[in-house]
C-alpha cells in the first residue's frame, strides 16, 4: 500500500500548529506497520533551517489545469524517523513569505500547489493521495477530473472545519475545471470558491481528527455551514483520534526539561515546577501551577476564561500562559500579569522549549475550548503528569475523563456547558483534589493514558484498506 500524504506543514521541517506534529509523526508508525509513505509539501523558506539534507531531484512539474502555467522544482529530504521521503515543491514566485501560511496571493498559491501535487502524483503513482486541510482541497478535484487511467483514491482530513479557504469566484475561473462544478455548488459556498468543500465533495473518503468531532460537525452548531454535506457522507466520514510521538515527548528522556521523571518516580516533576517558577519570576511555592498553551483566539474558550479570570486568580494558584493571537486576548493576559504579578506569567510569544517546560512543570493544563477537533495539548500534558481541565468537546471529550473519587478512575476534570461558571467549578474540583491524597492517583491516571500513535496508525491502515476496496464515490454537493 502506497500513500502520498500532502500537507503545508510537517514537523520538524515547518511547524505552526498540530497539523505539523501529525504529519511529522504518523508516517513513522504507518511505515512500521508495512505502509509505504511519501510526503509532499511546499518548499517553505524555513525548511532550509530545519532539514538535515536537501537534494535536488532534477524533476520539475508544470501545472496544466490552471489557465496560467507555473513551474515547480522538486527537491527531496527525509524525515529521520522512518527515513520517509519528503518532496519539496519550490516556486519562489508563489511561496514568497517567511510564514508557512503567508504569501502575496494565498489563493493562487494553493491552486498552483494543488495542481503541482496532482502532476507529482502521476509520477509517484500512489494508491491513495491523503490530503490535509483546505490548502490541499483542490487536489481531489483535479485528480477526479483530469487524471485519466489508474486514478488514485483520495482522502482529505479535516483538522479544523473553521478554516475552509474561501476566495472570490475569480480564483475558480483561473482553473480549467468545468463550469458546471460551480453551477451545481460542488466547490462553492454562496458566491465564493471554497477549497475545503471541494476536497470534501471530490474525495472518496473524508476523515477528521476525533470520533466526537466527526459527529459534532454534522450538526448546525459545529458544522460551519457544511453540516448537511458532511451528514450525506454516511460511513465515508470517519473520526480517528490523533496521537503524539512518545519518543519525542518522553519525560524520562526529555533533555528540554529541568529534570526527568517517570510514573514510578515523580520527584523530577517537582524540580520541573520549581525551575519553571524561577524562570518566569513566580514565587517558588507549592501553589498549583495552571498552564495554558494556545493560539489566543475565541475558539480556545478565552472569552469565558476572561469572565472567570479574576475569580480564579482569587484562589491559591499560579497561571502561566504561552501563545499569540488576537490583540484583545494578548492584552488581557498582559493586564492580568500586571495586576497579579505574583500569580500570572503572560508569555506572548511562540517558544517550543518553554512549551515543554510548561507541560512538565505545571500541575494542571487548561483547555476550555469552544470547540476542539482533537487537541494535542492535553495529550502532551498527560504524558508529563499534568492534569487537564477541559471543556468536554471534540477530541477533549474522547481523551479526558472526569476523575471519579469512588472508583479512582479518570484522568482530569471538565465541563460540558460553555459557561464561565462551569469552567470555574471544574477548576475548583481540580484544586480541591490537588490538596487531597487523591491527587497522585489523578496524575498517574493521566500518565497511563495511551495517546501514542500505535492505535491510531492502525485505524488509519484500516481506513486506507477500506478506501482502496471501496467503489468510487460519485460527486455530489
From TrEMBL:
The keyword Glycosyltransferase applies. Residues 2-231 form the Starch synthase catalytic domain. It catalyses: [(1->4)-alpha-D-glucosyl](n) + ADP-alpha-D-glucose = [(1->4)-alpha-D-glucosyl](n+1) + ADP + H(+). SUPFAM superfamilies: UDP-Glycosyltransferase/glycogen phosphorylase (SSF53756). GO terms for molecular function: alpha-1,4-glucan glucosyltransferase (ADP-glucose donor) activity; alpha-1,4-glucan glucosyltransferase (UDP-glucose donor) activity. Keywords: Glycogen biosynthesis, Glycosyltransferase, Transferase. Synthesizes alpha-1,4-glucan chains using ADP-glucose. Belongs to the glycosyltransferase 1 family. Bacterial/plant glycogen synthase subfamily. This is Glycogen synthase. The gene is glgA.
